[in-house]
Each structure stands twice: as structure tokens, then as C-alpha cells.
Amino acid sequence: MAAIETPVAKRLKTIKHVIIVCSGKGGVGKSSVSVQLALSLYASSPIARVGILDVDLTGPSIPRMLGLDGRGVLQSSEGWVPVYADGSETRLGCMSVGFLLKRREDSVVWRGPKKNAMIRQFLSDVRWGELDYLVIDTPPGTSDEHLSLLEHMAPVHSRLSAVIVTTPQAVALMDAMKCLSFTRTVNLPVLGLIENMSGYVCPCCGEVSNVFSTGGGQEMARQEGLTFLGSLPVDTELVTLLDAAEAAMPEQAADEPPRRTERTFRLIDQYQQTSSSKLFKPIVERLINALAGGGVGGDETVQA
Ligand SMILES: Nc1ncnc2c1ncn2[C@@H]1O[C@H](COP(=O)(O)OP(=O)(O)OP(=O)(O)O)[C@@H](O)[C@H]1O
Ligand code: SF4
């Protein structure tokens, strides 16, 4: 007798790669790396279709960073329609609990079972369609959200992998080690490690200076036999861009059909002009290479 296809399996079978973005510590830039990853994968080919799912249920920041705050999710006969951040309305979709809250300042105070149910609903009810990449932004540490994701996805999708984000400081690296240990315990393959806030991009000349320590992530990758995907410096241009997305977004009622906004289109183009985007390109090339099973170039650094 043929096995019954679960709703999650049905949704995930049209998604080629699922990339779970994790960090041991909060505030290391995991959400901004997730957004940059989605934007860079989107730009990596004129036909790449990318989804970004925000399962940081208590602190959803992806809608704000993508300039989609205040947008509502539409329910169609085929499920929840993602909020699209691009003009094509098929190539860069986003889903977050942030779209389901009445006001963006409302907080989500849920216990494990409710979080688990929400994540199952995200995985089974969102109409992503065909996707090349689904990037999942998770809360810091290893929490109920991570366990729920794996519980629902691991049995039905063979191309799940993780990217670990850290900053170079010792405390962040210690927590990144815990995150790595978690991925090993649950047999989640790690594509590599990104060292964020590694050095500083001068807003005047674009020069990268090492004002704080750097290289801790690269060293951890070397010691643990992980691929070092690259370093990203502190970039004030990036913060301005992601914060401006918040300020420019008009509020929209949850039952109103999603509106395209000029601001979001501009964000996609403007990101491509930033130093961070240029530094992210080789990271994405390595990641795509790793996903294709080609391996990547060891522990060389990407930072300019
Ligand atoms: N490379 C960077 N340069 C400058 N600012 C950055 C960089 N990376 C992240 N930031 C900023 O640092 C702050 C925290 O980033 P972010 O929300 O991405 O972290 P996080 O690890 O997802 O945090 P948490 O999950 O704990 O909420 C944000 O204001 C973000 O814009
Ligand atoms: S060259 Fe040095 S001092 Fe001058 S703007 Fe750039 S980083 Fe700042």
C-alpha cells in the first residue's frame, strides 16, 4: 500500500533546498544574514525562486528588515499566500508570525506545544509553490522552534542543512559551539559558518578595518572541520538600509490584499549596491557549491 503523503511532505516536495540559519547567541546578526542570504540567492540567477520563513516566533524581524511590516497574509484555497517582496510575485516570498499579529509591537508568549503547532502550520499551509531555496531564520540558541522544524521536516525532506552565524568574540563562539553540537546530535548537515560583525566598513571610503577581534569564526571552522563561508564586517550602510525599510512601510490591514511597495523594490536594488552585498557574493557562491555537493574552499577568508 502506498504511504500517505503528509501535508508537510506535500508542501516541501516542491522545495529543492532548505537552509536553516542558526546562531548560538542572540544579536549576532542571524536575521540580517538570513535576509542577505535570501536577497543574494535571489540575485544569483534571474530565475532563482527563494522563500524566507521567519520562525523566530517571539522576535520576528524579517518583515521589518524586508520592508514588509504591516502587510497581511492572504488565505487562498491552496493555503496561505506568502507576502512577496519582489515585483514578480513568485520569486521572493516571505512568511512570518509578524504578518499574523494585529500590531507589530504585540508580543507572542507561547509555550512549546503552541509554537510547535504554529511551525507545523507554516510548513504545511504556506503555498510556496516551486522554490529553489527556502531560507529559515530561527531564534538564537537551540529551542522548541528548532526541534519542531526538524521533527516535521527531517522525515520528509532530504535536503535540509544549516548555516551557523557567529561574531568573532569568545562568548559568541562558545555559544556557536553549542549550536554546532546540536546540529551534530540531530544529524543536521552544516553547510558552513559565517563570521558576522568581523571588522568595520568605513562609511566614507568603504575600507574594511579590524577594530574588534576577527578570525575567531574562521579558527572555529578550521578546528571543527567546517567550511568557513566568509566574514562580514559591521556595515552602517546595511543597518541604514534595513532600518529604513521599517520607516518607509505604510501600515496595512490584515484583510487587505498585499500591496507591492516601491520601497521594497528599491531595497532589493539598493542592497545590491552595498559593500555587504559584494562581500556576500562569494559566500553565496560557496554555499551554492556546497549544496551542489561540490565542496568549498576550506578556510580561506572572503573578507576584502
Ligand atoms: N554586519 C552588520 N553590520 C552592521 N549591523 C549589523 C550587521 N549584522 C547585524 N547588524 C545589526 O545588528 C542588529 C541585530 O541583528 P539581527 O537582528 O540580525 O541579529 P539576530 O542574531 O537575528 O538577533 P536575535 O535573533 O537575537 O533577535 C540589527 O540592528 C542589525 O541591523
Ligand atoms: S580612509 Fe580610513 S580614515 Fe579615511 S574614511 Fe576611510 S577608514 Fe576612515
TrEMBL record:
Q: Where in the cell is it found?
A: Cytoplasm
One cellular component term (GO) for this entry is: cytosol
Top-level taxon of origin:
Eukaryota
Instruction: Name the principal localization, coarsely classed.
Output: cytoplasm
The task this protein performs is described as: Component of the cytosolic iron-sulfur (Fe/S) protein assembly (CIA) machinery. Required for maturation of extramitochondrial Fe-S proteins. The NBP35-CFD1 heterotetramer forms a Fe-S scaffold complex, mediating the de novo assembly of an Fe-S cluster and its transfer to target apoproteins.
Protein name stated in the entry: p-loop containing nucleoside triphosphate hydrolase protein
List of residues binding ATP: G24, K25, G26, G27, V28, G29, K30, S31
One Pfam family, please name it.
ParA
Q: Which UniProt keywords apply?
A: 4Fe-4S, ATP-binding, Cytoplasm, Hydrolase, Iron, Iron-sulfur, Metal-binding, Nucleotide-binding
Locate the residues binding [4Fe-4S] cluster: C202, C205
Q: Give GO MF terms, alphabetically.
A: 4 iron, 4 sulfur cluster binding; ATP binding; ATP-dependent FeS chaperone activity; hydrolase activity; metal ion binding
The species is Neolentinus lepideus HHB14362 ss-1
Q: Which family does it belong to?
A: Belongs to the Mrp/NBP35 ATP-binding proteins family. NUBP2/CFD1 subfamily.
Q: Look up the record and give one Gene Ontology term from the biological process aspect.
A: iron-sulfur cluster assembly
